[in-house]
Design brief:
The complex is a heterotrimer of chains A (53), B (209) and C (474). With 209 residues, chain B is α+β, with helices and mostly antiparallel strands. Chain B is built from five helices and eight strands; from the N terminus they run ααααββββββββα. In chain B, 39% of the residues lie in helices and 20% in strands. Chain B is elongated. The two termini of chain B are 53 Å apart. With 474 residues, chain C is mainly α. Chain C folds into two domains: 10-389, Sodium/glucose cotransporter, CATH 1.20.1730; 392-474, no CATH class. The radius of gyration of chain C is 22 Å and the shape is globular. Classes of the chains: A mainly alpha (53), B alpha+beta (209), C mainly alpha (474). At the B-C interface, strand 5, strand 6 and helix 5 of B face helix 4, helix 5, helix 9, helix 10 and helix 18 of C. Chain C: InterPro entries: DUR, Na/Glc_symporter_sf, Na/solute_symporter, Na/solute_symporter_CS.
């Protein structure tokens, strides 16, 4: 590894924006919720069609 | 792992190992004087034959004087030890002499107080730009997300009447990430292997569909 | 905030775990009545539909790592930590086309060992068995240890008792119900996990908004928001390949591919990956809220439950906070432990008992043999978990082993000609070099090196001394 001198200039780094974080978090939570809804919906459909297992 | 010199907190281990430091510690100076005084108070055997030389037993007045002095010294020590505030010691958790973090994470703990405490972080050695990172009764904290650079930490106790004690010896940490060249080598190799893997699966699936 | 005291009274924790345990065991006995043959016991009749298929694959991949380590990664590695962990879902999605091909090539297949034995002969089969048994049992042990520590931290239950309880519950319902019980309970557990994470996540948003979180991070933990965050990026492909190797080689997933209806398997695996993807993001977000909420993190490994407890406490749920967290974590562990027990014992029965020892499994009298295998696996795991040996290192180093199997699986399923001995040499070379890289270079290079070396040998095996590959039917 190199010495103690920094090889990264923080001013050149870009950061994830607040909007990106907002979208990511909301997407994550809503997507997870939709996952639960999807599973229940598919279960009902499989049950009606007799294709559970 | 490299360690950076300068501004490193006093290492009590080094102090204990240093004979010079030990001799200069106030308690050691007092103890050696007590030893010297006490050795003079011990009775030596009274030689039966006074002509072969005896150690003259101190006179009663001198004995009383020395006893009083010894008692005052011991009593003073007790008073002093109770009045002096316990020194907080800031260290890494687990304790380590490694002062470089390669992921911007610093795990700190402090010993020697009952709390509540205040932990400060600064980028300059004189704590001119210090900000409080923690205030509360816990005796450790984990700080993450630090960018490359040097960080100085110190902690103090807030006594029951709201008065802060002295700051602990500062602890300096250097955050230093993987070099850009090594990172891109890893990313490049990883992307190459992963892309080929994905390609092989997709190609195979399409061919046999 | 002090975190040393359990969140729940001991009696409450015991009641909760015993209650859930009794529920799973009763369901296991009920569903287990459907398993009249060994195929029913091991493969749930090969007729599992898309809802149960997707749920079981997703739930099995949600381990305590997902709910505990995802927040840890977000806390230490930021946005990229969350996204990198979410990429582990790609392994499930990529197994979809493999499942399609597996069902075509092995219509009567039972375990992943069947594939390795038929494609790579006894030598390849032996190498596969060593790798997969080491990995599977290690994974099982880490789950058992995590369970014991969870019950100790949340409920004050003694570690040995808690670990034994979690393992015992999973053994019982797997014993009675086989894969039917595993899949059925997985569905319920997956719903609990998803609903629990969503509930806690939205509750966190009631007390802190994302803009506040972002502002706090910019001021106090800026590296967590950096697009070029070296600590997060350096392991991203290594961990992705580790995930690929875990899914592509392990009988946990192959047994599900055999258990689902042929046309359902590919879609179910792809859907399970899609369902799993947001979970590390939702769980990881909690860790980013620690600072803005004023939660002092003393152990990054517990940042998820710690913040969850704080958030639910703010919501006025009091001791219910500990109940919710315990239930979600217990489900995430049980859904993986039962799958590992079932799949690993299937390997012992099919590949060791029948394959190596040449015994024939009577279709009507399979239960004692299967039960013995489940008990043996669980006893080994229990003994290792009891020792509290630092088995994490073994699991992480196993990345080099499982990643070495990625290309042999792909080539064995999709290619037409291969130099089989060269592929086997490549697996071993990948394992050796991967482990060397793990211990001598850096841990985050083990799986990458293992996969790369094995890939080179497999490519060479396609052109050097390649012979046409036959079908995989016996």
């Amino acid at each position: 590894m190199g010495g103690c001198a920094s090889s990264w200039n923080p001013h050149r780094l870009t950061m994830f924006s607040a909007s990106f974080l907002q979208i990511l978090v909301l997407l994550g939570l809503i997507w997870t919720a939709l996952g639960a809804v999807t599973l229940v919906g598919l279960l009902i459909r499989d049950w009606i069609k007799g294709e559970l297992w | 792992m490299e360690t950076c010199v300068g501004g490193v907190a006093m290492d009590l281990t080094k102090a204990r190992d240093s004979r010079v430091a030990r001799k200069n510690l106030p308690f050691v100076r007092i103890a050696s004087r007590l030893r010297a005084s006490f050795s003079q108070l011990v009775r030596h055997p009274w030689r039966a034959n006074p002509t072969q030389g005896t150690i003259p037993f101190p006179s009663p007045n001198l004995r009383i004087c020395r006893s009083v002095i010894a008692g005052l010294v011991v009593g003073g020590l007790v008073v002093v030890s109770q009045a002096a505030p316990s020194r907080l010691h800031l260290e890494l958790d687990p304790p380590s002499t490694n002062r470089v973090s390669d992921d911007g994470t610093v795990d700190l703990q402090w010993l020697g107080g009952t709390g509540p405490f205040e932990l400060q972080q600064a980028t300059s050695e004189d704590f001119g730009d210090a900000k409080t990172r923690y205030r509360g009764s816990d005796t450790e904290t984990v700080i993450t997300g630090l960018r490359e650079g040097s960080y100085h930490f110190r902690v103090r106790e807030i006594t029951a009447d709201g008065k802060p004690t002295n700051w602990s010896e500062p602890l300096m940490m250097e955050v230093h990430y993987l070099s850009r060249g090594q990172l891109f080598l890893l990313l490049g190799t990883g992307a190459f292997v992963t892309t080929l893997t994905l390609g092989a699966i997709v190609h195979g699936f399409l061919r046999h569909r | 905030m002090m975190t040393d005291e359990p969140a729940l009274p001991v009696s409450t924790a015991w009641s909760l775990v015993l209650g859930l345990g009794v529920l799973w065991v009763v369901l296991g006995i009920w569903w287990g009545k459907k398993a009249q043959t060994s195929e029913g016991f091991m493969l749930a009749g090969r007729n599992v539909g898309i809802s149960l298929g997707s749920a079981t694959a997703m739930a099995t991949w949600v381990t305590s790592n997902t709910t505990m380590v995802a927040p840890l990664l977000a806390f230490e590695k930021g946005i990229w930590g969350m996204l990198a962990y979410a990429s582990a879902s790609f392994g499930l999605m990529l197994f979809a086309p493999l499942a399609y091909r597996i069902r075509r090539l092995l219509p009567d297949g039972v375990t992943a060992g069947d594939f390795f034995r038929r494609r790579y002969g006894h030598a390849g089969w032996a190498v596969f068995l060593v790798i997969t048994l080491v990995y599977s049992i290690t994974w099982l042990v880490t789950m058992a240890i995590a369970g014991g520590k969870l019950l100790e931290a949340l409920g004050g239950i003694d570690y040995v008792q808690g670990m034994t309880l979690i393992l015992g519950v999973c053994v019982l319902y797997t014993l009675f119900g086989g894969l039917y019980a595993v899949i059925g309970t997985d569905f319920i557990q997956s719903l609990i996990i998803l609903v629990g994470i969503v509930f806690i996540g939205f509750e966190a948003l009631q007390h802190v908004n994302v803009q506040e979180v972002h502002s706090y991070l910019v001021a106090e933990q800026p590296a967590l928001l950096d697009v070029m965050m070296p600590a997060a990026l350096l392991a991203i492909f290594n961990n992705m390949l580790f995930g690929f190797g875990e899914v592509m080689h392990n009988n946990v997933w192959w047994s599900r591919a055999f258990a689902m209806r042929e046309k359902v398997a590919p879609r179910a695996f792809f859907l399970s990956g899609v369902l799993w993807f947001p979970i590390p993001i939702a769980a990881g977000f909690l860790a980013l809220c620690a600072g803005p909420l004023g939660v002092n993190v003393t152990d990054p490994g517990k940042v998820g439950p710690q913040v969850a407890e704080h958030v639910l406490g703010l919501a006025g749920l009091g001791s219910m906070a500990g109940v919710i967290i315990l239930v979600v974590l217990f489900c995430s562990m049980a859904s993986s432990i039962d799958s590992l027990l079932a799949a690993t014992s299937d390997l012992l029965v099919r590949d060791i008992y029948e394959g190596v020892f040449g015994q024939h499994l009577n279709p009507e009298k399979f239960r004692p043999i299967s039960a013995t295998a489940i008990v043996v696996v669980s006893l080994i795991a229990w003994a290792l978990a009891l020792s509290e040996w630092s088995i994490d290192q073994v699991l992480f180093s196993a990345g080099a082993l499982v990643a070495s199997l990625i290309w042999p699986v792909i080539a064995g399923l999709f290619w037409r000609a291969l130099n089989v001995p060269l592929v086997i040499v490549g697996i071993i070379a990948g394992c050796v070099t991967g482990l060397w890289a793990y211990f001598q270079i850096q841990p985050y290079t083990g799986a990458l090196v293992g996969a790369a070396v094995s890939m080179v040998f497999t490519f060479a095996a396609r052109w050097v001394g390649a012979r046409p590959l036959g079908t995989l039917t016996d």
